[in-house]
Specification:
- The protein is α/β, with parallel strands linked by helices.
- It has three domains: about 1-120, Rossmann fold (3-Layer(aba) Sandwich); about 130-185, no CATH class; about 185-505, tm_1862 like domain (pyruvate-formate lyase- activating enzyme, Alpha-Beta Horseshoe).
- It is about 40% helix and about 20% strand.
- The protein contains 18 helices and 20 strands.
- The strands form five sheets. A nine-stranded mixed beta sheet has the order 16-17-15-14-13-12-11-8-18, sandwiched between helices. The protein has a five-stranded mixed beta sheet with strand order 3-2-5-6-7, covered by helices on one side. The chain has a two-stranded parallel sheet with strand order 1-4.
- Strand 19 (about 475) and strand 20 (about 485-490) form a beta hairpin.
- It starts with a strand and ends with a helix.
- About 45% of the residues are buried.
- The structure holds iron/sulfur cluster.
- Iron/sulfur cluster binds near residues 204, 210, 257, 290 and 291.
């Protein structure tokens, strides 16, 4: 084997270095590249990583995966600097697995453990989420609870040893899985949750990768969209769910920003939902009113009159300079005024969304945001960590902005979790995303009885989600939570309008 190692990594530097460094990983197995790449991106977020299975290129890491051998080595200046091999017991354990898929799963896990040993040598830093890269960490806790009959000590030991999670993240996962369990244990038999998408917003936020279009540009098509949506709503209530409407637990109208619709159009939509579904039997009815620049007293009164009991008013930040930067055409005062109006009208639950790690924000900015939120004291708060998602304007111009370091994000998260605690809110749901700055998490906090049922259901995937409108993804699951059918609506507004019968046909027979 011809080995030409490159010299590029310095201990304790790479993780905090903003300069782009090229990194070459040599592997003997092409079929593991995706997993390795994903995990390397977590460990070395600022580096450009390339992979090779050729042995005549220079490289920085060498990963060998065989049935009886698994090894990760790190080279610098032509010298082997660190090496982590699987133990005999680990190899024997994997060797005894007969199921091909299971075997591969364990190999992947072990490979990530070895990579994390090597990256710790280089960076001196443990990943708080250990080797977990999936978006639903609590699913793992539910599986372990089942496997080890709720033996918390055993579960903590496994999360710590086999997944290398930090104590803090383990405690967060355990607390949240308890909360989620309380919600999921009240699931109806063959439960259904409904999502209705309104893909319009006043403007597109810098970081947005959702299916959302500026409403002004689509004004002349809005009524056609609502007409098509009403057709899909009627199909769901009169045909698909005929005789099963009492199985619906929650309705979530999201988007986009549904309150971008003018009052009259919003009423047409709310009327259609009221005619189609037994709202009096439904436990939670949410409408996202995310942008204060779309909210009026009249619209809020309308929502209240039609039985909506949960709304979102999403500041993201209470700093004007950041609101301007991310393209939200409102002020922090607009948020306060809208929130007070909604509170006075009397919605049961008002959620506020925040994002930590927005471009140019510091922990001090986040402290200012949380102090202002504390004065409003919403009963539901969701704290997201900034993610630079493909398809967003931010990802197209990523280099134009500056981002907080992992350490600053950690501090911001701790400021928000402390603030949530001081408001009497408890963490109740959790998910992670790809491309998150600093590889952290999104956490929903709520006062007791103000948790969002729909959020928990969609994250845990234990019940059926039927999604209507542009970009809706319907998921049909078995009793034990296996997805057996996934049906997507088009993400194109014009396509949805012209092909509404096809969207409906896709759902027939599920
Ligand atoms: S309000 Fe939400 S959906 Fe609308 S553009 Fe901003 S992030 Fe996207």
């Amino acid at each position: 084997m011809v080995i030409k190692q490159k010299s590029l990594l310095k201990k304790n530097l790479i993780h905090f270095c903003n300069k782009v460094i090229n990194m070459v990983v040599q592997m003997n197995r092409e079929d593991f590249i995706y997993e390795v790449k994903t995990f390397f991106k977590v460990c070395f977020p600022n580096e450009v990583i390339s992979f090779t299975t050729l042995t005549n290129r220079s490289f920085d890491f060498d990963i060998q995966i065989e049935d009886d051998f698994l090894s990760v080595s790190y080279y610098s200046e032509g010298q082997l600097k660190y090496n982590s091999d699987a133990s005999k017991e680990q190899i024997q354990f994997i060797g005894a697995i007969t199921d091909r898929v299971e075997k591969r799963k364990e190999q992947k896990k072990l490979m990530k453990l070895l990579i994390s040993n090597v990256t710790y040598f280089i960076t001196g830093k443990e990943q708080p989420w250990g080797i977990l890269t999936g978006i639903r960490p609590t699913k793992l806790v539910f599986n372990l609870r089942k496997l080890y009959r709720n033996d918390t000590n055993k579960i903590v030991e496994i999360l710590n040893k086999d997944y290398k999670l930090s104590d803090e993240k383990i405690q967060l996962m355990l607390k949240i899985s308890d909360k989620e369990h309380a919600i999921l244990s009240k699931n109806k038999p063959n439960e259904i949750n409904l999502y209705i998408g309104i893909p319009f917003c006043p403007t597109k936020c810098l970081y947005c990768s959702f299916t959302s279009f500026p409403i002004d540009k689509w004004q002349s098509h809005i009524m056609d969209y609502i007409t098509a949506l009403k057709k899909e709503i009627s199909f769901i209530s009169d045909e698909l769910l005929k005789g099963q409407l009492n199985q619906i637990r929650s309705i979530y109208i999201g988007g986009g920003t549904p309150t971008s619709l003018d009052e009259a159009t919003l009423e047409v939509l709310l009327e259609a939902v009221k005619d189609a579904f037994p709202l009096e039997q439904i436990e939670e009815y949410t409408v996202e009113a995310g942008r204060p620049d779309t909210i009026t007293r009249e619209k809020l009164l309308l929502l209240k009159r039609y039985g909506v009991d949960r709304i979102s008013i999403n500041p993201q930040t209470m700093n004007q300079k950041t609101l301007d930067l991310i393209g939200r055409k409102h002020t922090p005062e607009d948020i306060i005024n809208t929130y007070e109006m909604a509170k006075e009208i009397g919605f049961k639950t008002i959620n506020m969304d925040l994002i930590v790690g927005l471009p140019d924000e510091t922990p001090e900015d986040v402290r200012n945001t949380i102090e202002q939120i504390k004065k409003m004291a919403p009963n539901n708060l969701t704290v997201h960590t900034m993610a630079i998602k493909r398809g967003s304007a931010l990802s197209d111009h990523e280099e134009k902005y500056s981002y907080a370091s992992s350490e600053s994000i950690e501090e911001m998260i701790s400021i928000t979790s402390q603030g949530a605690l001081e408001m009497g809110l408890e963490p109740y749901y959790l998910y992670r995303q790809k491309h998150m700055v600093g590889n952290f998490e999104n956490v929903g906090y709520a006062k007791r009885e103000h948790e969002c049922i729909y959020n928990v259901e969609i994250i845990e995937e234990k019940t059926n989600i039927i999604a209507l409108g542009v970009g809706g993804i319907t998921k049909i699951v078995t009793q034990d939570g296996k997805i057996i059918n996934r049906i997507e609506n088009t993400k194109d507004v014009a396509g949805y309008i012209s092909r509404i019968d096809e969207m409906i046909d896709r759902k027939r027979g599920i």
